[in-house]
Amino acid sequence: MEAEQLKDLVVDQLEGSKAKDIKVLNVKGLSSVTDYMIIASGTSSRHVKSVAHNLVSSVKDEGVQPLGVEGDDVAEWVLVDLGDVVAHIMMPQTRDFYQLEKLWDPNWKEVSAQH
């Protein structure tokens, strides 16, 4: 699956799972690890875990095998590594603390979650 299609699939799944404040960061050229970083918030640790679980299940149904899932035991911050797309599903306070969006160069390109 192409990176752009995978990004769209992830955003659709996050929206369908009622994730909040979804941001898509285009990190091509800024990262050699991934093309898109998607950051979303959950409303509780249970919701964060459920969103991540639904995302993994959905991409597997489309033939994409996640490279890794980290943090689902505590569910304050779950990272789902899909290769060309890395999804971070976080509790709002965790997201505020780490401010992943601000870790990148001021010239990073934000891609609207609307597609």
Automatic annotation (TrEMBL):
Please name the Pfam families in this protein's record: RsfS
Q: Give yes or no: UniProt keyword Repressor.
A: yes
Q: Does the keyword DNA repair apply?
A: no
Single GO molecular function: ribosomal large subunit binding
Q: Which GO terms describe its cellular component?
A: cytoplasm
Self-association or partners: how does it assemble?
Interacts with ribosomal protein uL14 (rplN).
Protein name per UniProt? Ribosomal silencing factor RsfS
Q: Which gene encodes it?
A: rsfS
